Amino acid sequence: MRKYLSLLLALATVLSLSMLAAVTVSADGIEKAANAIFVADSGDDNAAGTTPDAPVATLANAFSKLPNGGVIVLVGSVTIDKTEDHPRVMPAHEGVITLTSYYDGVDYRAKPYGTEPVTPRLNLRNGTQDLEFHGDIVMDYLRINVGVNEDAGTIMINAIITMNYHNLTVGEHIENCYEDANGVASDFDLDYSSQGSKGNSGRNCPPILFLGSSANTSDMPRDVGGETITGDYTVNIAGGAWQSVRIGDRDLENLNTLDCHVTLNITGGIFAFWTGLFHSSNLSVMCAAQAATTPNYVCDMTITGGTFYGEVCGFGKASTNSLGDALQQGTINMNILGGEWIRNFGVDNPPAGEYGGYAFAASMTLLFDGAKVNMKIDPSKMDLGVMDQFTVAGLDGVETTLEMVTESDKIGFFGLDLFFSETYLPLTQGAQPEETKVTETKAPETKATETKATETKDATGTKDATGTKDATGTKDATGTKPAEQTGEKTGIPAYVWAIVGVVVVAAVVAAVLLIGKKNKAKE
Fold first, then answer.
1. Which of 135, 239, 297, 465 could form a disulfide with 172 if both were Cys (CB 3.0 to 4.6 A apart)?
2. Given a cut of 90, is residue 426 above it in pLDDT?
3. Distance CA 501, CA 494 (A)
4. CA atoms within 13 A on the CB side of 448
5. What is the pLDDT, as a whole number, of residue 321?
6. pLDDT value of position 339
7. Contact of 128 with 154, CB cutoff 8 Å
8. What pLDDT, in 10s, does the model give residues 108-155?
């Protein structure tokens, strides 16, 4: 009996600790972790970096100290630029690394570190060179500054963050700022709905997020790439301002091929870029961008929040040049079930409250063979402003279906050569744009079953001779990161589960003791 009791108590302890370990985000920022490295520009790369009073000096050095994951705490300004003093390529790592400035109950954003003139932030001064991550990343309670270029007198536009096909979670506590090295804010017009003033486009200012890679750098030739990307990837975005989010690459002549499953969840944040028409490039959100896709490719995008100034596109193209012209296959499931949609087609700078927004299946200049886009839209949960119109369009050559969760006459449909090829809402090629009342007729479900390619990447992350790349790290079988890695605050808090677990185990212990006592009495 004592043996059983000891085992049950041990089980209760392990269960409680494992559940509590899942709590990574709280009202006091990121919780204390076993491995944490502190970093600031004015730190010292010869330091251990394990205390806030003795940080390392570069983000790359901080990453090198956490090969198996952990927390990196920005206690000062941490600069990424084109110089060797502030490397932009982070070392590869296993596990998850969290970037934050609010750690273990201390909000380091409250004041500058040491003699630094600015409060802690990730200071992107890399222009069109990307900040490269090579492992799963969480960002929360973090300032991201796109610096002012004092020499040119402009914002450093097109700051880029690339994930090189790893998981990413962006928390809701991301702040954007646009300041020079001394913390002086830009006096440019940063209205995301306008072109801006002084030759600066406000909507170009926030960073761009890529799931894949970028050749728009000085040390990476455009002819890299050519890999087949397999595995499961998850991108969760709950905050921050972004010029655009692209599931794919940028400017790779030797195109990568997506043979993977991507889950894109958008619950918040600002997505700034728009073109003002159904265009072929530079869109707010693209579920496939500048990469080939196979019949096995699946992207499940779900939008339940956020503010969108531009288009949301299934198969997209991120450049007006020839790069990215690749055969598009596979299936994209676009679930638009919320969000605030700022711009309406043909309205350059709409007055406050007068906005609509639009989404379409694919860019016009791509090549398609069996590509499918399944749209699911719920107008009742979308903030469309006083204009109350959201415009959607399919594309000739792309099998497109539309399901309206609630009946609405506030959804507009475009004809031209953009139309739905299924029987649900067929539009005639060459027709003029018109607002159409949607009936309750639903399109049949055509969501593709995910077929995964055989994984050919080993645990070390080394690609084999075929050039096939696969997901690494700690993703589960579904491709969705566990709560302890993503830092998401969804569902019942982990500590509640821990308490429930302890109570359940205690009840089992009591029952066993009672049975033992009854057996002893019978004896």
1. 239
2. no
3. 10
4. 25
5. 58
6. 96
7. no
8. 999 999 889 999 999 998 666 789 999 999 999 999 999 877 666 677
For 204, list phi and psi in degrees, rounded to 5. -85, -10
CB atoms within 10 A of CB 38: 25
CB 70 within 8 A of CB 36: yes
Relative to beta strand 70-74, strand 36-39 is parallel
Distance CA 401, CA 442 (A): 9
Residue located via tokens 């909000």: 107
Q: What is the model's pLDDT at position 424?
A: 35
Better pLDDT: 490 or 323: 323
| Contact between residue 250 and residue 286 where contact means Cβ atoms under 8 Å apart | no
Closest CA to 484 of 14, 31, 4: 31
The first and second tokens of residue 334, run together, are 């676009």
Share of the chain above pLDDT 70, in %: 64
State how far the Cα of 431 lies from the Cα of 143, in Å rounded to an integer: 47
pLDDT at 439 over 90: no
Partners of 261 in beta bridges: 232, 298
**How far apart are alpha carbons 206 and 242 in whole angstroms?**
5
Tell me the C-alpha distance between 39 and 28, whole Å.
20
Q: What is the CA radius of gyration of the chain?
A: 25
Which among 214, 272, 269 is positioned nearest to 238, based on CA atoms?
Answer: 269
Q: What percent of the residues of the chain are helix, what percent strand, and what percent coil, each to the nearest 5?
A: 15, 30, 55
Least confident of 51-65, 158-172, 420-434: 420-434
**What pLDDT does residue 129 have?**
75
Would you place residue 416 in the very low, low, confident or very high pLDDT band (cuts 50, 70, 90)? Answer: very low
Dist. CA 90–CA 63, nearest whole Å: 6
Find out whether 341 and 355 touch, Cβ atoms under 8 Å: yes
Q: Point out the least confidently predicted range of 36-45, 117-126, 296-305, 472-481.
A: 472-481
Say if residues 340 and 390 touch (Cβ distance below 8 Å). no
The span from the CA of 463 to the CA of 423, in Å, is 44
The secondary structure of 60-86 as a DSSP string is: HHHHHT-TT-EEEEE-SEEEE-SSTTS
Query: What tokens were used for 152?
Result: 């040119």
Pairing of strands 70-74, 340-341: unpaired
The predicted model scores a pTM of 0.76
Q: Which two tokens stand for residue 275?
A: 């073109």
From residue 314, how far is each of 1, 230, 397 by CA, in Å?
A: 62, 19, 13
CA 373: distance to chain centroid?
A: 20
Q: For residues 123 and 147, what is the distance between their CA atoms, to the nearest angstrom?
A: 7
Amino acid, res. 510:
A
Region class of 361: left (phi > 0), else alpha (psi between -120 and 50), else beta: alpha
